[in-house]
Amino acid sequence: MNAALEAEGLVKRYGARTAVRDLSFSVPRGSIYGVLGPNGAGKSTTLRMLVGVLRPTEGRISLLGGPVTREALKRFGYLPEERGLYRSMSARGAIAYLARLKGAPSGKAFKRADQLLNDHGLGKVKRKKIKTLSKGMAQKVQVLGAIAHEPDVIIFDEPFSGLDPVNQRVLEDTIRAQAAAGRTVLFSTHVMEHAERLCDRILLIAHGGKAFEGTVQQALALAPSVAVLETEGDYDLAATLAPKGFRIVQEGEEHGNRRWRAKLENGHGSRQLLQACVEVGAPLSLFEPARASLHEAFVSLVGDKAMPDAAE
Amino acid sequence: MSPIFLVARRDYFAYIGAWGFWLSLITAPLIIAVLVFAPVLLARAEPPRTLAILSERVEDGAHIAAAFEAEARRSARGEIRAYLDTTAPAIVADALAAFDAAPERRAAIAAAREVVSRRAPGALRAFPAPSPRYIIVEPPARTIEAMRPYLSGGRLLPNGEALYGALNLRRDAAGRPVIEYWGVNLSHEEPSAIARRAMRLMMQREALAAHGLAPAEADRLETLEPQIVQFDPRSRAEEAQVTLRQRAPFYAALLLSFVLWSVVFSVANMLLTGVIEEKSNKILDTLLTSVTPLEMLIGKLLGVAAVSATLFLFWGALGGTLLSLAASSLSTSMLGQIAAAFLEPRLLAAFGVGFVAGYLMYGAIFLALGSLCESIQEAQTLLGPVALVLAMPMMLIAPALDNPNAPIIEAASWVPLFTPFLLLIRAPAGLDWIEIAGQGALMLLAVTVVLMLAARVFKAGVVDQVSLANWRGRKAKG
Fold first, then answer.
1. pLDDT tens digits, residue range A145-176?
2. Cα B101 from chain centroid?
3. What's the structural domain count of chain B?
4. ipTM exceeding 0.95?
5. Any chain B CB within 8 A of the CB of A75?
6. According to DSSP H, which parts of B120-167 are helical?
7. Which of A25, A49, B7, B338 is 20 to 30 Å from the Cα of B309, by its Cα?
8. B193-225 pLDDT, tens per residue?
9. Three-state SS for A28?
10. Right CATH for A224-291 from 3.40.50.300, 3.30.70.260, 3.10.20.90, 3.30.70.920
11. A101 touches chain B (CB under 8 A)
């Protein structure tokens, strides 16, 4: 059995409202798996069902090849979107407490807490109370609390939100290190860049349903190619090429030149675009075919309105 | 280790580690000690109050002054008796006989002291030195109008003291006595009450003398007093007489009911604020992957129950030691008998059962309410009506003490929310087995139902994020 986690036909209804509809996906063991979607798409509800906090209205979940049981859940680490710790506990006490709730023996839990805090640069504050730590430090402590019992599968719900860029990078490293140690990491995010940098596979959820599941490359392949162009002066490339069927938007202006981004779709490739530019005599100073971003891939899959943020 | 135990353990140490816990651990016995001893200490610390008597007739004034002196003598005798009751019960009768034989108060105190120094020298060390509550002084002026500055605090007496009050005794046109009491402490009526009693006796004597009765005969009439004895028909003939020993369990039950009520609601309130704090700290979602809502509810109930147990153990050890000492060494005294009543197994069992059932019921209700609230302010809007319901057992305690078997009290004790408190206060009256078993079973059923319902509400509150705010929002939209 290669799947760490499998969901089949998941549905979650709250009265007349359906938060998650017919969602099926499979998370391979040892992979980094991203669940993406805009706010309110149903990501957190899905993750809460996976870790047994919520019971699905319909559907089946398989954890490490078996049903959702207390024992199976002990092999999972979970960082919820709504984060918090007991403010009067020490950092090591909080981590050890979460580990012990997952079945780790007391001595081992404290030893592991000390080790994790030292490894993540928090050794000096390990005996300090949570209320005296900065928000970023407290969030780090909570991340460590989710992995202290050395789970096989780690589920993080929006782990990057609230972190500054430096700590986002540290967390990315932590996720990579956990995957390198053979653990499966599943995280949700609405920031495409993290998923693009980290994930082996992704699941896109929109309006509670699955819009896409596969590798990042597969997702990118679904997006139209793009080209970045620069014209001299105030030449209007978009208006000139529109009659020829090209969708071009201005991205900015630099040193008196205009920068454009063209979507290559409807059978138009970069060669056809360059040829059209030559035909109309456009004063090009730059022509650069570029790879589509995950964001663009998703726009093409679910449309603008259901789109996650491009960056945060 | 069981998650329930871990939750309970964490909550227990969180409360034990809070300075508020230690404060309540220490302050409660201190407050009780202050409540018990403060009135006595205050009364002893207060200097005698000076009164002046103006009288149209010399004999009226002398009679009232003598009444105040008699009151001081009676009070001194009571104080000496209470002291000897607890320190040297064997010589109480002889010491009081010596006191009574002396003609004047100071001499009477000295006579009693002399008996103690001879017969029980060990009790002499803390022998009381009773001082009179009122001292009658020469009026600083001849009329009440002239005395006003003294009475209102504008002027002091020649010895430098303030004049507390004045009695102006006069006769009306028909020759009937009129007592005017002048003093700025408007709620204090004791001096006028003493004067009224004394003057009434004087009027009775005058009336009896008018009918030809000799003053000595009138004095004898005053001392006539019936003997009153109360009996309990349920006791054997030789034990049927009701004394303090039989009444003491009722007073003990009353005090324990108040303690039970205040402890149950204090700790239930701890649960409420604790769960609101956890909701606002956003910690619950983290815990819910390891602990089910029911386990969390039970863990929290156990944790705070352990906090209560710690408080009880400390207070119980302290109080039990003091009461045991009192019960053994002061067996004949009032304090000793009340102390023994507190240690009655039946009462302690009722207290234990009442605490467990009351705590579980109210604790679960408060936990469920807390899980529906996002803030203490929001909880307070819920607690208003709930507090009114919870105050009802307190309203029933006084009537239950007066008549433990009144129909309304019997009916109310079948309501599980009131049973823990009423069972306790009715215990000394002797409950039959059907009542104990029936109410116990009903309480057990109620505890089970409340725990099940509370677990559902708690789950809705912490897992499904149902709260008062979004419930109101839904209602407004719907």
1. 999 999 999 999 999 888 888 888 889 999 99
2. 37
3. 2
4. no
5. no
6. 144-151
7. B338
8. 999 999 998 888 888 998 998 888 888 888 888
9. strand
10. 3.30.70.260
11. yes
